[in-house]
Give the backbone structure.
Amino acid sequence: MDIFDFSDGREGYYGEYGGVFLPEILQATIEELLACFRECKADPKFWQDYVALLQNYSGRPTPITHLENLSRKLGGAQIYVKRDDLNHTGSHKINNVMGQGLLCQRLGKSKVIAETGAGQHGFATATMAAKFGFECKIYMGAVDVARQRPNVFWMENLGAEVIAVEDGQKTLKDAVNECMRDWVTNMADTHYILGTACGPHPFPEMVSWFQSIIGLEAREQMLKQAGRLPDRVYACVGGGSNAMGIFQGFMDDDVELIGSEGGGHGVGSYMHSSRLAYDDATVGVAQGYKTYFLQNDEGNMNETHSVAAGLDYIGVNPIFAHLHDQGKVRFEAATDVEVKEALKLTMRTEGLIPALESTHAFVTAIKEAPTMGKDQIILINQSGRGDKDIFTIADALDDAKWKSFIGGKADQYRAENN
Amino acid sequence: MGLQRFIAERKQSKDILVMAHVVCGYPSFEENLQELEIMAEAGVDLVELQFPFSEPSADGPLFVRANEQSLKSGTTVDQCFDFMKLVSARFPFKVLMMGYYNTAFKMGEVAFVTRVKESGGVGYILPDLPIEESAELHRLSEEAGIEPIILMTPTTSDARLVKLGAVSRGLVYVVARKGVTGSKTQMGDDVLALIERCRQHTDVPLGVGFGISSKADVDVLRGHADIAIVGTAALKIWEEGGAPALRSFFAELMA
């Protein structure tokens, strides 16, 4: 199936979701972007350049690892992991960013802006901007700036300007709004590098296209390494770009696709980021597109929560809203508590440190693997690595030795300043 | 009386009309009423009542904060409509609903149009709803006799102005410059050229907004635009100097 074939429906719509809901002032910019994207997508040379760039700069193709220890311990399906954590900058975010960087060159624009939550997308964008020579501004909620200093440190040292957004909940959604405000002013020379498969058309399609490289590689690697396709594929879903990336490799196969959302404090808590796995979200229009949002009856957005900042978002990509309706993708949620346990288990048994976001996919896979046969195969997308999020993970694991180390460091800095 | 006829009648006695703006529930509904009384005394012709939204991505810092604070103090859509009813009955100016599409979408388009009409509103401005998405809402509005306000901007191509012009009713909101609400606009030849360009594509009156903050700005528009739209500037004055400052602001603006 080609979810991006709009010939039978409305351009940019997936079922009733998607579309373009932007101020009139941006219509010309979005039309220009769509035309440029169509041109790139139709040009085989563009995709070749893109793949070559990721091979030479980011270490693609990323490998697939068979988790023999974990599979044995759980006693069910054989578990394989796609290692997008091994990308430069530590996550799949670099795929989309490099692609949009090439596209930005074609657009002839010299400045880029991006929103970021956990800082992964901002970090990747700052990296790309340094390499391509673009001026770069990253909008990040003030709450996120405070809790993700290491990423802010790298972005600034890579030459980007990081702007702390003080509006609203001061998190990812507010950073998106601020990007829109910058873009309506500076669109003449600025491209907005949206980090996930959300927002107005063509962003969901464009980000999905760049991320499809994950699934293309993974399908081929599974056939080669495991001798056949997996029975199930698991990926975490914030906006949904890494999941769209890996799922696209298996859309036409008899493979079950499972998205794992941020369950936060659990069902009924209203402190979570599960748009599709729980029943709290409803259809709405915000941030340029129509999809399921965690919002109240009057259409104002609710507070969201996840231990993983990268999943802590009000909306889900419109393609998933549609695939959910169709029963093509199943959605589950992993709670903060489950995530911490799964992370410990994965570190101890396999020596892998998935990002907190990616660990949500591990939670659901670890729950389900024991119920499957030993001859069955599952594949998890490890979209990011956790070692660089040491501050967040140490907090999540409440590590006493780490706290005393940081306390000591703080004392040392204070002494130096006096 | 329809919006377009109202504007035509008012324009018989003045060369330019003024449309003002308040964010419902910010600083409070009581203060909104005081602001509106001052506007009415000064002879303001039209008022936008902004229904607060949690993601006001087309607004600048002052209105963003106003939206946020209003919601924080518990403002509901129902209260905004009740306020609209009160205001449209009490004052001689005409009232428009201004907000974001999700407010209308969540209550349902039929209910939205009905409520605007029942509350005495003559139309609405939803800046994040492009014409491609508004066919049904426009049809419902026409049936109810209220006007969806179309926006035309400096980045809009001639080809698109033709499309926008074809569906424009009541008045057209000409956005004087790129950007969000609240920053200063250099009111000069660019804006006048834009007005002329828009005028070629629509017969309805043109209101010009974004960054209009002084009598000098209004004077530039005189003879070119039908309505000067003042938003952020008035709220800023209110926050800085309260009722006396706002009274002298409008007195000077409309002199």
Notes: Chain A has two domains: 13-55+93-203, 61-90+211-396. The first strand of chain A starts at residue 13 and ends at 14. The interface with chain B takes residues 19-29, 167-168, 173, 176-177, 180-181, 184-188, 282, 284-288, 295, 297-301 of chain A (CB under 8 Å). The CA atoms of residues 116 and 122 of chain A lie 5 Å apart.
